[in-house]
């Protein structure tokens, strides 16, 4: 029996694992107590890594679709045919006729991340999409416009704070996002034990809210109004204390003027939070010596996601909590993409061009996923004719999945680099399946930028891939070379990491990291401003015009606030500890037991509609309808429905035997591709208007 140590790369927590194995049989997977960051924490998904390793439905060789069946073909034939099809389409319709979509697991595989630029270079297409714009684009835009780099994302210093406010995040289940804090629950328990407080603002009394000292229900999509009125109180009562940030930030006066317009009384009805509650929250926050506001998914994927993330940063700044112990801090990672970009210049960039059909702004070279279907379905110069998806399942993850399905069906060619034949990849002509999970090395380069301590770890593969398997990066290298006729002759991903490691002061190499199988703690977060700022004037920009001018839209929404009689409910999402977005439901131990794909409805709403717990109802929106079991609860706000995403595996042609037995329904069949944050183009999943109807003859 042997022991292998590695990081789990399923979610952003990057927990250390201790894996006992014999040959290629896994004996146990436990938390690695010697990992200095995760200290032994893991969640049930880590164990499912074995199921993915052994999954008979996982593709191991390339497949080609011939009508409705799939045929295994050789790597050479598959990549060659894909490259030829792509070249033919680009020759006929132009470079932009091929689009790419990158899904979430790309961010957890350094080889994939480092080699995607080669594919984009080979393709020369401006039609680029990723899960960013159905997730954290507002965070990236706020970082870019305020601090000068899309990765300068402040992280809550959770281990040293005394007061944490969480808006739109449920780290007790998600294990944290833009906050690599494995073992979040124990970290919060430590905060409470040292006399600190946690306040959660969420339309649902979530698992995280239940841990906290205070929970306030908020109407979905109204966080920006709450935050502006908190600023209003802080300025009015002279509670601002930016301290040393005064010298390194500009435009304080503009912020004060904007906030002046938003007294708590004006936003109380809109947000559903009483003016007195807002005042006391603002006071408590401003008067705490170490406090941090942290907003995540629910505060980002909504109509006002962009300004919400801006306002969260502002609140941390005016109270002096940015770049300070116990506040919102920046990391100094060992593989520092921010430092490296001083050389490469890739800091971000916003609205340098707009999408063809709906004129939505580009961010960092990508257009919003909410308009991908339009770009495929709308004829004309520049129409997308071919698509490459890499580790993405947008049929289940993008808004209005049904429309996207129609779009995918109409493509002349689709290539998927993926491990499964799922809801999205079943439309592909060719699927190229990489080695994955325990067969890959792990170096969570992005998440070391977002970690609550400076930390780094390299884990080699546990199992060597077979000689006929390829890594994602090898597929990308081969495909790029065959498309461009040019060998980018890149180094291996590990060599590229060695190069990036030189931009930090830690003097590390992959070889040195291999000597630290539990990872290397690089210490608590330290103040790094102003020298880490990437704005041209090396100042924090408190009032970027993009945000300032978007405040008007919020003001209008507050003034015209009324319930839509046809769609009186607002939809929100939630996560389950045993799911990872859409793709882990083919593991029996992740799906067994109770049905997890349910709609939560408030007890009073259920009474009014004469709906009972466990009943199946119809939920209808502008874009479609689904039938789903309801759970009646006091934990969700009145007028709100909560449904998890990533389900809906009963679609024809999906080759996931376990998942098909626990299919659930896809909430993105009723979310709306036209309901977006108009500033950033990010999808608005929170606050989609729906109505609930009884289904005839349920019994
Ligand atoms: N309504 C609603 N919609 C949402 C969300 C929500 O909360 N509510 N959440 C949003 C968020 S935060 C995100 S990040 C997106 C996720 O959106 P996506 O990234 O599009 O969806 P995933 O379900 O993560 O799909 C991952 C895909 O990668 C494949 N895969 C897994 N491992 C590998 C690998 O090693 N290599 C390759 N090549 N492929 C692999 C899987 O088979 C699957 O097809 O969904 C978003 N959509
Ligand atoms: N178990 C598990 N863990 C995961 C994932 C998973 O699928 N499963 N996915 C991973 C990914 S890709 C991501 S991005 C992260 C996301 O991780 P988190 O950011 O923690 O996101 P969620 O768990 O979806 O929690 C969002 C919370 O926002 C609330 N909310 C909804 N709308 C609003 C609103 O308008 N205002 C406010 N204030 N709150 C609102 C919801 O009720 C919910 O409690 O999780 C990651 N971790
Ligand atoms: S919390 Fe995330 S990183 Fe940790 S074991 Fe679970 S899935 Fe893996
Ligand atoms: Mo995400």
What does this structure look like?
With 699 residues, the chain is of the alpha/beta class. It has four domains: 2-47, N-terminal domain of TfIIb (Single Sheet), CATH 2.20.25.90; 63-126 and 368-442 and 458-518, 3-Layer(aba) Sandwich (Rossmann fold); 138-333 and 534-547, Dimethylsulfoxide Reductase, domain 2, CATH 3.40.228.10; 562-694, Barwin-like endoglucanases, CATH 2.40.40.20. It has 25 helices and 28 strands. A seven-stranded mixed sheet has the order 5-4-19-18-17-6-7, with helices on one face. Strands 23-27-24-26-25-28 form a six-stranded mixed β-barrel. A four-stranded parallel sheet has the order 11-10-9-13. Strand 15 (350-354) and strand 16 (361-363) form a beta hairpin. Helix 8 (223-236) runs antiparallel to helix 11 (264-271). It binds ligand MGD (2 copies), iron/sulfur cluster and molybdenum atom.
Identify the strand order in the major beta sheet.
Answer: 5-4-19-18-17-6-7
Secondary structure: helix percent: 25-40%
Overall tally of domains: 4
Q: Please compute the radius of gyration using only Cα atoms.
A: 24 Å
CATH class of the largest domain, please? Alpha Beta
Q: What percentage of amino acids are in beta strands?
A: 15-25%
Strand element count: 28
Average pLDDT level = 97
Apparent shape: globular
Largest sheet: 7 strands, mixed
CATH fold annotation of the largest domain = Dimethylsulfoxide Reductase, domain 2
Class inferred from helices and paired strands: alpha/beta
Bound molecules: ligand MGD, iron/sulfur cluster, molybdenum atom
The CATH superfamily of the largest domain turns out to be: Dimethylsulfoxide Reductase, domain 2
């Amino acid at each position: 029996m042997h022991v292998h140590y590695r990081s789990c790369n399923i979610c952003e927590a990057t927990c250390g694992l201790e894996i006992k194995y014999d040959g290629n049989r896994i004996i146990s997977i436990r938390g690695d107590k010697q990992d200095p960051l995760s200290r032994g924490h893991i969640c049930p998904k880590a164990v499912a890594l074995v199921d993915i390793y052994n999954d008979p439905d996982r593709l191991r060789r390339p497949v080609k679709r011939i009508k409705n069946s799939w045929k295994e073909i050789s790597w050479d034939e598959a990549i060659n045919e894909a490259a030829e099809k792509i070249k033919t389409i680009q020759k006929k319709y132009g470079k932009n006729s091929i689009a790419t979509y990158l899904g979430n697991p790309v961010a957890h595989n350094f080889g994939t991340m480092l080699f995607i630029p080669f594919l984009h270079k080979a393709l020369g297409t401006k039609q680029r999409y990723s899960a960013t714009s159905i997730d954290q684009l507002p965070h990236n835009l706020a970082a870019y416009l305020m601090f000068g780099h899309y990765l300068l994302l402040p992280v809550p210093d959770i281990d040293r704070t005394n007061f944490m406010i969480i808006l739109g995040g449920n780290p007790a289940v998600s294990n944290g996002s833009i906050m690599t804090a494995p073992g979040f629950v124990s970290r919060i328990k430590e905060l409470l034990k040292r006399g600190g407080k946690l306040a959660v603002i969420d339309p649902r009394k979530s698992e995280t809210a239940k841990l906290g000292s205070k929970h306030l229900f908020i109407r979905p999509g109204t966080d920006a109004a709450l935050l502006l009125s908190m600023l209003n109180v802080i300025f009015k009562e002279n509670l601002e204390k930016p301290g040393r940030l005064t010298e390194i930030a500009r435009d304080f006066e503009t912020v004060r003027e904007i906030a002046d317009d938003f007294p708590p009384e004006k936003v109380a009805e809109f947000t559903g939070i009483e003016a007195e509650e807002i005042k006391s929250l603002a006071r408590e926050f401003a008067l705490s010596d170490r406090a941090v506001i942290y907003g995540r998914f629910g505060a980002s994927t909504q109509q006002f996601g962009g300004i919400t993330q801006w306002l969260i940063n502002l609140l941390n700044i005016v109270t002096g909590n940015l770049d300070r112990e116990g506040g919102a801090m920046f990391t100094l990672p060992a593989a520092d993409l921010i430092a490296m970009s001083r050389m490469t210049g890739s800091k971000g960039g916003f609205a340098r061009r707009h999408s063809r059909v709906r004129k939505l702004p580009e961010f960092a070279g990508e257009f919003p996923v909410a308009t991908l279907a339009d770009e495929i379905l709308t004829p004309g110069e520049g129409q997308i004719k071919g698509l490459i998806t890499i580790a993405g399942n947008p049929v289940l993850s993008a808004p209005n999945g049904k429309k996207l399905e129609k779009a995918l069906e109409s493509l002349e060619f689709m290539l998927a680099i993926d491990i499964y034949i799922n809801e999205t990849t079943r439309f592909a002509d060719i699927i190229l399946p990489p080695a994955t999970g325990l067969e890959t090395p792990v170096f969570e380069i992005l998440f070391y930028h977002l970690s609550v301590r400076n930390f780094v770890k390299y884990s080699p593969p546990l199992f060597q891939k077979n000689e006929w398997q390829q890594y994602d990066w090898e597929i990308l290298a081969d495909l790029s070379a065959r498309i461009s006729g040019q060998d980018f002759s890149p180094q291996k991903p590990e060599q590229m990491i060695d190069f990036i490691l030189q931009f930090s002061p830690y003097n590390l190499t992959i070889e040195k990291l291999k000597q630290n199988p539990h990872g290397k703690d690089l210490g608590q977060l330290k103040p790094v401003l102003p020298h880490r700022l990437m704005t041209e004037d090396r100042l924090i920009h408190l009032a970027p015009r993009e945000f300032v001018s978007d405040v008007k839209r919020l003001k209008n929404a507050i003034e015209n606030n009324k319930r839509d009689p046809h769609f009186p409910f607002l939809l929100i999402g939630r996560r389950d500890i045993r799911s990872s977005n859409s793709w882990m439901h083919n593991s029996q131990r992740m799906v067994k037991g109770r049905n997890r794909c349910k709609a939560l409805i408030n007890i009073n709403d259920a009474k009014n509609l004469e709906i009972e717990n466990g009943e199946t109802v119809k939920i209808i929106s502008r874009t479609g309808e689904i039938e789903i079991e309801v759970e009646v609860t006091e934990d969700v706000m009145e007028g709100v429905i909560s449904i998890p995403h990533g389900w809906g595996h009963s679609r024809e042609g999906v080759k996931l035997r376990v998942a098909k037995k626990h299919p659930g329904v896809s909430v993105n069949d009723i979310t709306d591709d036209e309901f977006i944050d108009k500033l950033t183009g990010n999808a608005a999943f929170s606050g989609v208007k729906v109505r609930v109807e009884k289904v005839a003859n349920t019994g």
